[in-house]
């Protein structure tokens, strides 16, 4: 931007003191202004009213909240067109820019930076815990914490120690949403850190994975059984019969991953308030849909009386699917995943429900199911479907890659209980750099994958075995992990 010299000269006259005006060359035509820096010079001299100084912090907070991208764009926008790949980085840059304006903006910006923390690298965990140990006031801003990182060999003890400090020292006193989904390089890493009974956590996500060891997570589940409103977990394969039954008094929302080895916790869990049940991992059903569908039937037979929302993969056997529906007499919303050329079970014989008002059909856009019907529902006998679902008011086809929209944009006739997965105020504070960190290779310089690696000419087998045992017993400490993490940051900067 370039300002006209005459206009700049008049602005300077108004703002300068009388003494400065007398010293200023009145015969100057403005040509003495540096054409490259005239705007900067004028800006430094002018006193432009800054109305943001008069805005209350509460008002600035809501302005910034609405200016930042919504959470669902940050979570899913990186892989879905037309959203650009660097959306995470842009979000982090915006938040950091807010903190650098003034003290007032800094106070607000720091809260945005820390309210949602996502740790995708094992090196971030000790760095995060150390920061909260030295600056305890930052921990009060943390509302959501997601620890989903790979745990290389030798880092298991570090992971367990830092997680223990996180809760034993109560470093996040305002934490409400906690996700823990590590990927250990070997063995099983459980949630051994005891979450205190005074915890504010209402939403717990233990990950859709195979590492869940029920005796390890039992102390945390027991501590949160009276406060949890939402739980995501893989249904365990084994329960310790010596552990008391858990009653989740206020648990309304459950995201469940059922495997062939899963066992229904009939004698171990009580879910009196359960209203929403989602089974998002529909890929695991493809190998044995009816066997896993039988486990779902057994689960809803015990816990389905109060369900109003059910999202599940398709069960190919109509009688089994109908048994699931009959176990949910209060069901209002039904979501089904349809694969290949399967037809909607509602068009088959026998599948019906008296209270279902909204229906979501999840399918890949390339499937023959979607091509045959299209978004206009061509080829579907609506009258026949309504005869089986007399209260049906809304029917949607949703691409499986966009299934998060089912929670983000519920049908207008559906009153969603509790809170959705993507409330507008819930925006992750992680940067795109954090995603890159999760893909950093962990191979040693002397490993077989190193192209410059040369096998030693002479080695004793016994010595090799001893060295291997020593390497397997090696555990990194916090200082070493932080040094490696800082070196990685410098390399990627």
Jot down its keywords:
493 residues; alpha/beta; Leucine-rich repeat, LRR (right-handed beta-alpha superhelix); 3 domains; two-stranded parallel ribbon; 15 strands
What this model shows, in words?
This is F-box domain-containing protein. The protein is an alpha/beta fold. It has three domains: 5-48, no CATH class; 55-229 and 428-442 and 459-493, no CATH class; 241-417, Leucine-rich repeat, LRR (right-handed beta-alpha superhelix), CATH 3.80.10. The protein has 19 helices and 15 strands. The strands form three sheets. Strands 1-2-4-6-7-9-11-12-13-14-15 form an eleven-stranded parallel β-sheet. It has a two-stranded parallel sheet with strand order 3-5. Strand 6 (203-205), helix 11 and strand 7 form a beta-alpha-beta unit. The model is unreliable at 11-43, 76-86, 372-378 and 414-456 (pLDDT under 50).
Give the gist of this structure.
InterPro entries: LRR_dom_sf (IPR032675). This protein has 19 helices and 15 strands. By secondary structure, it is α/β, with parallel strands linked by helices.
Portion in helices: 25-40%
Average pLDDT across residues? 71
Number of strands: 15
Which sequence of strands runs across the widest sheet? 1-2-4-6-7-9-11-12-13-14-15
Q: Spans of 5+ residues with little confidence (pLDDT < 50)? A: 11-43, 76-86, 372-378, 414-456
How many helical elements?
A: 19
Radius of gyration: 29 Å
- N-C termini distance: 31 Å
Morphology call: globular
- Domain count: the total is 3
Overall structural class, as computed from helix and strand content, comes to: alpha/beta
């Amino acid at each position: 931007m370039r300002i006209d010299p005459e206009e700049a000269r008049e602005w300077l006259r108004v703002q300068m003191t009388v003494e400065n005006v007398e010293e200023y060359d009145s015969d100057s035509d403005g040509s003495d202004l540096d054409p490259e820096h005239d705007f900067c010079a004028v800006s430094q001299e002018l006193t432009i009213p800054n109305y943001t100084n008069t805005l209350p912090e509460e008002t600035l907070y809501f302005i910034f909240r609405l200016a930042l991208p919504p959470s669902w764009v940050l979570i899913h926008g990186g892989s879905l067109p037309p959203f650009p790949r660097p959306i995470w980085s842009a979000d982090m840059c915006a938040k950091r820019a807010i903190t650098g304006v003034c003290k007032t903006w800094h106070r607000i910006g720091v809260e945005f930076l820390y309210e949602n923390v996502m740790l995708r690298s094992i090196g971030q965990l000790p760095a995060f815990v150390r920061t909260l140990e030295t600056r305890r006031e930052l921990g009060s801003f943390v509302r959501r914490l997601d620890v989903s990182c790979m745990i290389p060999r030798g880092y298991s003890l570090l992971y367990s120690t830092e997680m223990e400090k996180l809760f034993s020292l109560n470093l996040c006193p305002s934490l409400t949403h906690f996700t823990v989904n590590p990927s250990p390089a070997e063995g099983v890493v459980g949630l051994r850190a005891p979450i205190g009974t005074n915890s504010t956590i209402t939403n717990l996500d233990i990950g859709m994975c195979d590492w869940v060891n029920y005796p390890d997570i039992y102390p945390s589940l027991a501590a949160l059984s009276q406060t949890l409103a939402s739980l995501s977990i893989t249904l365990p394969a084994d329960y310790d019969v010596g552990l008391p039954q858990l009653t989740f008094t206020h648990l309304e929302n459950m995201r469940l991953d059922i495997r062939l080895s899963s066992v229904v916790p009939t004698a171990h869990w009580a879910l009196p308030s359960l209203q929403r049940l989602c089974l998002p991992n529909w890929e695991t059903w493809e190998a044995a849909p009816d066997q896993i569908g039988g486990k779902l039937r057994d689960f809803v037979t015990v816990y389905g009386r109060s369900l109003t929302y059910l999202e599940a993969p398709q069960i190919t056997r109509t009688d089994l699917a109908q048994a699931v529906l009959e176990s949910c007499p209060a069901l209002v919303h039904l979501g089904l995943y349809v694969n290949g050329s399967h037809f909607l079970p509602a068009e088959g014989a026998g599948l019906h429900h008296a209270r279902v008002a909204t229906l979501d059909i999840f399918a890949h856009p390339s499937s023959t199911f979607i091509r045959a019907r299209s978004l206009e529902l061509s080829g579907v006998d609506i009258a026949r479907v309504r005869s089986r679902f007399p209260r049906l008011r809304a029917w949607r086809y949703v691409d499986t890659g966009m299934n998060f929209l089912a929670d983000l944009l519920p049908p207008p006739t559906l009153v969603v209980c509790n809170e959705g997965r993507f409330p507008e105020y819930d925006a992750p504070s992680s940067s795109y750099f954090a995603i890159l960190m999760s893909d950093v290779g962990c191979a040693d310089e002397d490993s077989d994958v190193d192209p410059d690696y040369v096998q030693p000419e002479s080695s004793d087998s016994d010595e090799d075995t001893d060295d291997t045992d020593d390497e397997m017993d090696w555990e990194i400490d916090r200082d070493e992990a932080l040094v490696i993490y800082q070196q990685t940051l410098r390399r990627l900067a």
